Amino acid sequence: MLKWLTGKKSVTVWAIKQIDDGLLHLCGQARIEARGKRSEVLSQIASGCFEGPVNMASNGLILNARQFAALIPLEDLELDSHGTAHWQGRIWDLAQVPQRCWTFDGRLTVQRQVQDGQVVLTSTEDVSDIRRQAHSSNDPGVVKFGIYGAEEHPLLTPKEHEVRPAPSHSNRSREWHGDDDER
């Protein structure tokens, strides 16, 4: 009852991870606990400057609002049965973002999957930059053969005719002294 008197109430929103041309990467519904009045939180959300915790409705994870491209009040985004959304006077395709991508900081790409005879878009991490860097670097399967120590400084590499002295320490501590034989 106090929440009603003070005007503090949670705001239910759609959490959007990324906005592409005609495509929304949708994480799902979330709740924002209003620190101030609900109208103040709604105006912060509308202007895109809300900062604070976002409680994901599906599993209770609490994420930072900076993880999302947009937080859209539930009544401002309308979903239809064709996998599209109506928002800001436009029709948007939807891609479902799996939980593992909710905290991913890079770009997302879309994969088409068929579920129950219907095409569903699923977001996944864009790793094309990582692949590009891996292909441009030296092939890790290339092995250089050569003379051992040929690239080392001559004072560090022993000559073939030199005999190395035995190490100064011995393994005496590991030898069995036969103490048990006297019993």
Can you walk me through this structure?
13% of the residues lie in helices and 33% in strands. It has three helices and ten strands. It has helices spanning 2-6, 38-47, 128-136, and strands at residues 11-20, 23-32, 53-56, 62-64, 70-73, 78-79, 84-87, 90-96, 108-115, 118-125. The strands form two sheets. Strands 1, 2, 3, 4, 5, 6, 7 and 8 form an eight-stranded mixed β-sheet that branches. The model has no long low-confidence stretch (mean pLDDT 82). Residues 154-183 are annotated as: Disordered. Residues 154-164 have a biased composition (Basic and acidic residues).
- Which secondary-structure class do the elements indicate? alpha+beta
Low-pLDDT windows of residues:
none
- Record field, number of beta strands: 10
Report the β-strand fraction as a percent range.
25-35%
Number of domains: 1
Q: What's the end-to-end separation, in Å?
A: 86 Å
Helix content: 10-25%
Please tell me how large the radius of gyration is.
32 Å
List keywords for this structure.
eight-stranded mixed β-sheet; 3 helices; 183 residues; single chain; alpha+beta
Task: Summarize the topology.
Layout: H1 2-6, E1 11-20, E2 23-32, H2 38-47, E3 53-56, E4 62-64, E5 70-73, E6 78-79, E7 84-87, E8 90-96, E9 108-115, E10 118-125, H3 128-136
Parallel strand pairs: 2-8
Antiparallel strand pairs: 1-2, 1-5, 2-3, 3-4, 6-7, 7-8, 9-10
